[in-house]
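BMP-binding endothelial regulator protein, pasting as requested.
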Amino acid sequence: MPGCLTSSLFWDWSNGTFFDALFEPGRPRDESGDVRIDAADSRVGLSGLHRWIAGRSHSLRGNQPSSRTDALAQRSLGCKLNGTEYRSGHSWSDPSDPCQLRQCRAGVITESTERCFAHCPSPKSVPGQCCPKCPGACRWGHGGGSGTSVCSRVTCPPLDCPPEERTRSDDTCCEACPPRRHCTFSGIKHAHKEEWRPNPCVKCSCEDGVTYCQRERCSNSLWCPQGYQLRLHDDACCPKCVEHDAVCTVFGDPHYRTYDGRMYNFQGGCKYLLTRDCRQDAFTIKVRNGVRFNSGFAWTQMLAVFLGKSRISLLQNLKVKVDRKRVALPYNRPGVFSIRRTGRSVRLRAQIGLEVVWDGDSFLEVTVSSKYKNRLCGLCGNYNGLKSDDLTGSDGKMYSSGEEFGNTWRIGSKRACKTSPNINTRPLCGRDPRARQRAHRVCSVFYGHSFKACRLVVPVQPYVSSCITDMCDCPVGRYCACEAVKAYWSQCSRAGVRVAWGRQERCFPPVKCPEKADPVLCSNTCPRTCSNLNSLEPCPTLCDTGCLCNGGAVLHDEECIAPERCPAS
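Structure tokens follow.
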């Protein structure tokens, strides 16, 4: 905003001197002859303030010239005030009022008033100075060309200490908090305000030399929606809801149920890629299919699981090899995987979130953690939550036939294939009506009372069809329906339905148990052992034929022992 002045002194911040606008050549004037001054003059203002100095020229008690002298003598004439002499051109402020500025010019003392306008909400007064300062803002300058001062603002950081504790040294612009003390916890130093976790359930922080720790508490009423389950991760204190693990099932003459729930048949008799982490290569599972009973149908004969540099082979009759060497069960490779007998199956558990169950004949299940979603490929599908694209071959094409799809995942040479090429042309049970009648009679077990509750939850027809196919290829005297019965029973158990046992018990004959243990048809798949006594990891709601230790005993090396007898880890 402009001000109309007849006599005014201004401070020139470019050279550190006052200038008199009345005597400055080229200053614009209004109609009355007064000089017009703009408060935004580039030479006026600093530290967030605009200032100007205004006042009319008048004589204080100074020397007055008695006669005219030449111009040079007039300009060099000094002033005297209150006994103090001042040379011409000297400027000073009134000690009692810093805003009153005086200047001696040619024997005349001119008095002006300095006015300040702050551009911050709460300017801070400084003793002995007229204009207040904006706190937290400084300007530092350096010389530029042609006598110009170039200034830049220094932004001060926010402080977390009370105002009375803040200090500022003479050579710095910004205030600072006093140095804080560090903390020592378990022999480790931690800086002020640092946070850390001694374990997943405890969070600590350092506050000026004092350590504060707080324990996280887990809710006892956690509930997960359908399709989710509680899961405790290694780096977490409390279990959280995560998607259910995905399961791929292979059974019978081979029938496949993919991770996303699509069922199809594929009677290939070669080596195949069953499933693999095709993004990060965390694991690979290969299967070899062989011929059983006649050359028209294939069955899963064995499988190989690859975990890093480890190779685990699950063979017929529950034989196991690790890195091509026969091993006795239980077998454990700490931090990588463990293998043990559970009833009439072998169960491989890997730390990476993979589990394989093999019955030593032709039934197998592969269970993967939900972290592998959208990462898998092979005969078990891609695990993306969609059934419609599960038959995507290794060439990236979509197939409608299980046979065409399966052949794209063949590995190795065709010379290893065992079946004849007329698989799809053979009718079920051939032309033998008695064989067909026998197959339907045996497979009617799915419509009995035992599976009544499960039929309301899990569709039964795909398993009935698989059962009939297997029975048609079954020699007289054998009961080949068990593969389909096991697959349906497993799916029922996974859906939370307990099967009322009946005729299908012949598929789950009693197992031989160690001393102090009883055989059970539906035992926990995660029995208490010396290695999991204190584990909080929830166990899947599946059950399996197996042995249950009595009287609070735990399983160790296929024996039931008291927990206090467990070896130190």
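Note for the archive: Residues 65 and 290 are 129 Å apart (CA to CA).
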